[in-house]
Design goal:
- The chain has strands spanning 4-5, 10-21, 27-36, 45-54, 58-62, 68-70, 75-85, 90-100.
- The protein is mainly β.
- Strands 1-7-3-4 form a four-stranded antiparallel β-sheet, with no helix packed on it. Strands 2, 5, 6 and 8 form a four-stranded antiparallel β-sheet that branches.
- The radius of gyration is 15 Å and the shape is elongated.
Length: 101
């Protein structure tokens, strides 16, 4: 698993995705946030999914309030899941918003 380790007790309160779709053809992708423990054998848990159906090069989406308390050592994992589309590739980045608890 690769993600952002949490250094202090905090609450994940939102995220904004800046996404790009190569070739500007019809397609659907899920922009997801998962959390996990760094312990060996841990299972990641899906926390939120934003779906984008796009026929354009650039799309922005923000999550609703997540309000998820995280302990130090937890990991937040952003992921893009391809759902449908022909000859397209999704890529981009996410900005995570935390509140110190």
């Amino acid at each position: 698993m690769a993600g952002y380790p949490i250094g202090i007790a905090s609450t994940l309160i939102g995220a904004t995705w800046q996404t790009y779709q190569a070739n500007a053809v019809s397609g659907v992708a899920h922009f997801q946030l998962w959390t996990a423990s760094p312990a060996s054998g841990s299972t990641a848990t899906l926390r939120t999914t934003n779906q984008i159906t796009s026929n354009r090069g650039h799309a922005v989406t923000s999550t609703a309030t997540i309000d998820l308390d995280l302990s130090p050592g937890a990991i937040v994992i952003p992921a893009i899941q391809y759902v449908s589309g022909t000859s397209t590739t999704w890529y981009g980045g996410v900005t995570l918003l935390f509140k110190r608890t």
